[in-house]
Write a structure and sequence with these properties.
0% strand; TM_pro_TauE-like; transmembrane helix; TSUP/Inactive_protease-like; mainly alpha; Probable membrane transporter protein; transmembrane
């Protein structure tokens, strides 16, 4: 396939993935990395390409959420700093070790958390606006797994914090802005470890994602919290079942 044709395909995928990611807080990295792996790209190169693109797309999405009032400043810092440390370690591991073990860990977690979120939509609970204990550790683990597995930062952080009762729109906005810093750290580590990626792939993902980012931020402000939680649960459950299918096939 010609590079320009691939560029258009990746731009379309980047736009769709970012629209879903901006509204639900997850799925950009998983969708993009899964597509690259499906095309035969080595795992380290696939994760590197996604993180190069996410440095820009999550920056656009995070700023859009900030302007829309969806970012909680303290939550952002508590996630971003440990997330950067985890991302550097995860990217270093991926550059030298096979990432198969990541999928075995992430799959049951996604399935169980997806089911848990779906169950919680049937119950009323007062939303909390503080930063619970353990959020920094969550950021570290999510950053490590995201860099090593090509995706999972948002699925882990958003799912866990929404399940704890935190307001979905503040979680999603803060997670996206922190993801920009985490992706930058992973990208620098990948660049030093394995070098550059395919430029037309990265540019396609960036263009599509940046164009769709403001629409995701606009959408999340207009979705009721229970609807956002339901959609997030369905998304996480689908990702978990898809990963399970890839393991057993």
């Amino acid at each position: 396939m010609a590079p320009f044709s691939e560029f258009l395909i990746f731009a379309g995928i980047g736009a769709l993935a970012q629209l879903v990611d901006g509204a639900l807080g997850m799925a950009y990295g998983v969708t993009s990395a899964g597509m690259l792996l499906g095309m035969g790209m080595p795992p380290a190169l696939a994760s590197a390409s996604v993180h190069y693109a996410e440095t820009f797309t999550c920056g656009a999405s995070g700023l859009s959420h900030w302007w829309a009032g969806n970012v909680q400043r303290r939550l952002f810092w508590v996630l971003a700093i440990p997330g950067v440390i985890g991302a550097v370690i995860g990217a270093t591991l991926l550059a030298h070790l096979p990432p198969t073990w990541i999928r075995y860990f992430l799959t049951p977690y996604l399935v169980l958390m997806g089911l848990f979120l779906l169950f919680r939509t049937t119950r009323r609970k007062e939303r909390r606006h503080d930063v619970p204990k353990g959020t920094g550790l969550l950021g570290f683990v999510a950053g490590l797994l995201d860099a090593a597995g090509g995706g999972g930062w948002s699925a882990l952080t958003v799912t866990t914090m929404v399940a704890r009762g935190q307001e979905p729109r503040y979680v999603i906005g803060s997670v996206h802005l922190a993801k920009c810093i985490v992706s930058l750290a992973a990208s620098i580590t990948f660049l030093l470890s394995i070098g550059e990626s395919k430029l037309h792939v990265v540019l396609g993902l960036i263009l599509g994602g940046v164009m769709a980012a403001p629409f995701g931020a606009w959408l999340v402000r207009r979705l009721p919290p229970r609807v956002t939680t339901l959609l997030a649960g369905l998304t996480v459950l689908t990702l978990g079942l898809y990963n399970f299918y890839r393991i057993v096939r």
